[in-house]
Design a protein that fits this description.
- This protein has helices at about 60-65, 75-90, 185-190, 195-200, and strands spanning about 30-40, 45-55, 70, 75, 100, 105, 115-120, 125-140, 145-150, 155-160, 165-170, 175-180, 210-215.
- It is of the alpha+beta class and about 220 residues long.
- Strands 1, 2, 7, 8, 10 and 11 form a six-stranded mixed beta sheet that branches. Strands 6-5-9-13-12 form a five-stranded antiparallel beta sheet, with no helix packed on it.
Length: about 220
């Protein structure tokens, strides 16, 4: 079975983020991420990028910054910048765990930009924020909405939207646009999955648990 997990290696300034091939003994999350997503529009009212924020769980956060220089309750800016750069470099191979579609048609995305790692001292949690541009901006009319799923196919990492203000609309004109989030019922998913979902390395187990954010734009309501 081919494994595409690379150990979360942490040195003085770098860390790699990718995932582990799904195996029956590991078919549950080991890293937990809370997410926010800003849908960015251009001047013509088309979706042109996603600004994604991941907030890692306390245990992974502590591991990621272990031994890093810290001053006045936060970590060295150069360390955090290198952390973001290395994370995005490694995630590029997996398209940053992002799937964007209009209907069943995939929408190509470009290289992540403006990566930023931050540290929340009170919560003890590390965040990674980055912009994922669309190669071709999407109008997202009501009849052809844009669907966004962000997930680790292996389900080693689980990525869930925060409960408060999980999505926002930013940038150019976006009157008449809205985003709805569909969250799968986890227990239902577990009981309905075939055995092959756990034994086939190409099954994309994590896709079954991924929330879908659907952007739809239409005439502004009066």
């Amino acid at each position: 079975m081919q494994s595409w997990w690379k150990q979360f290696l942490v040195s003085v300034a770098v860390i790699g983020v990718v995932a582990l091939s799904a195996q029956p003994s590991m078919a549950h999350p080991h890293v937990f991420i809370d997410m926010k997503t800003a849908f960015r529009f251009d001047d013509e009212g088309r979706l042109d990028a996603l600004r994604i924020t991941w907030i890692f769980d306390e245990f992974y956060s502590a591991y990621a910054v272990d031994g890093a220089p810290k001053t006045n309750g936060t970590y060295d800016e150069k360390y955090l910048a290198a952390l973001a750069e290395e994370n995005l470099k490694n995630l590029a191979e997996w398209n940053y765990f992002a799937e964007v579609k209009t209907g069943s048609t995939p929408v190509e995305t470009g290289e992540a930009l403006d990566g930023l790692s931050t540290w929340d001292e009170e919560a003890g949690r590390l965040s990674l924020t980055f912009t994922l541009p669309l190669k071709v901006p999407q109008a997202a009319p009501a009849g052809a909405p844009v669907n966004v799923r962000i997930f680790d196919p292996s389900y080693y990492i689980t990525i869930d939207y925060v409960s408060d203000d999980p999505v926002s609309l930013v940038g150019g004109q976006h009157q008449g646009c809205s985003v709805a989030i569909a969250v799968p019922e986890v227990e239902q998913v577990w009981t309905s999955l075939p055995e092959s979902a756990f034994t086939n390395p190409d099954s994309q187990l994590g896709a079954n648990f991924a929330s879908t954010a659907t952007l739809s734009c239409g005439p502004e309501k009066s």
